[in-house]
Specification:
This protein has 371 residues and is α+β, with helices and mostly antiparallel strands. It has two domains: 139 residues, Creatinase/prolidase N-terminal domain (Creatine Amidinohydrolase, Chain A, domain 1); 219 residues, Creatine Amidinohydrolase (Alpha-Beta Complex). It contains eleven helices and 18 strands. The mean pLDDT is 95.
Length: 371
């Protein structure tokens, strides 16, 4: 069954490659390798041909581990960067690719990484490169039932982590200690990893994505907690804002406004909805309440193997090297509430992971929403 899943994904990938005029993909982004082969790790690569053949290159130390996890036709181990370059050349030769087009993940590759995978000792001279970002985004945007099950599991772990973090909120504790409580609880609940944890307090809640510091919470502080566990390779995204004491009337009003805007937007999530329209729904409610200057960033993004992936609102997509997304399809998973309301003195935010359904949304992160 597992092999059939990867064969199906490779089949769809090959169709998109042929339509784009790409003869082979050379992938280095762990999430893309994981999606197509079952394993993705740093300092590795996957080469996929238009015939659906898969070759992997991994550190020599990892070969046996990858063999037990991944679906592939050929695997090469290497000892250093020079060995990696030579193994790429070896796979080009194995597949008899000495000319044509190779697709690379432009949005992931740094300039130095680009130089490595296109090194004259790696890539044949007559092979030209093309951006394959749209192919991988198009493949991963609609989730299979098994993927949604994994995201649901991650959402359950996220609720556990959020409960631990909120329980820890009290004057005198540091932002870093709150993050530690969340991460410890998530590990114990089944997370094998998590994307960066954000915890900010007091005036730091006015930061879009506040990394935790050793700032100690003060009585009456707002505390913004944003966590992203990884369970069986898949993520969920949840954010809550709470108060160490009684919020001011202005804080409570702003929170209630943002929560209502977020929940109204979630209520409009369904197959056929346009992500740009959903973005405008949330932001329009804030602007009409006089907070037009207190909005920053896109409030919606996709969730899956990565905690932020396609679909993205058109403007945000452009800066990520992505195409503007088509109308949402059933089984796309998005987070609603990314980036909040920032007054200058403090901010509020609520974010939830939601599955797009044919007729409406299913919210996966259900931890209580109370300031």
């Amino acid at each position: 069954m597992v092999s059939q899943v990867y064969q199906g994904r490779l089949g769809r990938c090959v169709t998109l490659m042929k339509a784009a005029g790409i003869d082979a993909l050379l992938l280095t982004r762990p999430s893309n390798m994981f999606y197509l082969t079952g394993d993705g790790r740093l300092c590795s690569y996957a080469m996929i041909t238009k015939e659906g053949k898969v070759a992997l290159g991994v550190p020599q130390t990892d070969v046996e581990d990858v063999k037990a996890l991944a679906r592939f036709d050929h695997i090469a181990g290497f000892e250093d960067e020079v060995g990696m370059i030579h193994s790429i050349a070896h796979h080009f030769a194995r597949f008899d690719i000495d000319a044509g087009v190779v697709g690379l993940e432009f949005t992931f590759l740094t300039q130095s990484m680009m130089s490595m995978v296109t090194h004259p000792h790696a890539k044949p001279k007559a092979v030209v490169v093309k951006d394959a970002t749209p192919i991988l985004s198009g493949l991963r945007i609609v989730k299979e039932p098994g993927e949604i099950d994994r995201i649901k599991a991650a959402a359950g772990v996220a609720a556990t982590g959020m409960a631990a973090a909120v329980k820890a909120v009290r004057p005198g504790i540091t932002e870093s200690q709150i993050a530690a409580e969340a991460e410890y609880a998530m590990r114990n609940a089944g997370a094998e990893e998590f994307w960066r944890t954000y915890v900010s307090s007091g005036p730091r809640t006015n930061i879009a994505h506040g990394l935790p510091t050793n700032r100690k919470l003060q009585p009456g502080d707002l505390v913004m907690i944003d966590i992203h566990p990884i369970v069986n390779g898949y993520s969920a995204d949840i954010c809550r804002t709470v108060c160490t004491g009684k919020p001011t009337p202005g804080q409570q009003t702003a929170y209630d406004l943002f929560l209502k805007a977020q929940q109204t937007t979630i209520g409009k999530v369904r197959a056929g909805a346009v992500i740009g329209d959903l973005e405008q729904t949330l932001q329009k409610a804030l602007r009409e309440a006089g907070h037009g200057e207190h909005i920053f960033g896109p409030p919606i993004h996709g969730v899956g193997i990565d905690f932020e992936e396609s679909p993205l609102p058109p403007g945000h997509a452009f800066f990520h090297g992505e195409a503007a997304p088509p109308p949402l399809e059933a089984n796309v998973v998005i987070a609603v509430g990314n980036c909040g309301l920032y007054t200058g003195s403090w901010g509020v935010r609520v974010e939830d992971t939601v599955v797009v359904g044919p007729e409406g949304p299913t919210a996966l992160t259900d931890y209580p929403r109370h300031l």
